Amino acid sequence: MGSEVIIMPAMLGVVFGIYYLYISSRNKERLALIEKGADASIFFSTKKSLTPTWKVLVLNVAVLMMGIGLGIFIGNMMHVSFGLPEEVAYPGTIFLVGGISLFTGFFLTKKLVEKA
């Protein structure tokens, strides 16, 4: 009974700790560079992204959803045709084809960014 109460605060503590370490280390690094006399403009990117973020997000979500749908379809075919247990066929193919679709989405996004 006690472990259920501890899990959520522990997870939130881990997320907060990682965020705190990221912010504090970034701040220390910037202060060290400023003390050495480096120009503050190195912290700001002058290059703007030519491809809008929403296009990249929509492309990756669309490819992932198609992959999940294909994974469900292939999982059903494996369950019906080969007699593979449902507990193995569906999650296995969904994760496999979903991962392949994310990998494909990465390359499509890379091609989209290079084209713009």
Note down, in words, how this protein is organized.
The chain is an all-alpha fold and 116 residues long. Helix content is 81%, strand content 0%. The protein has three helices and no strands. It has helices at residues 2-35, 53-82, 86-115. Helix 2 (53-82) runs antiparallel to helix 3 (86-115). The longest helix has 34 residues, at 2-35. The mean pLDDT is 88. Residues 10-110 form the DUF6249 domain. The chain crosses the membrane at residues 6-23, 57-82, 88-108.
Q: Return Rg in Å.
A: 23 Å
How much helix is in the residues? over 70%
**What is the end-to-end distance?**
55 Å
Largest sheet: none
Order of helices and strands: HHH
Q: Could you give the count of β-strands? A: 0
Q: What class, by secondary structure content?
A: mainly alpha
* Residue windows where pLDDT falls under 50 for at least 5 positions: none
Task: Give the count of helical stretches.
Answer: 3
Transmembrane segments: 6-23, 57-82, 88-108
Keywords: Membrane, Transmembrane, Transmembrane helix
Domain DUF6249: 10-110
Protein name: DUF6249 domain-containing protein
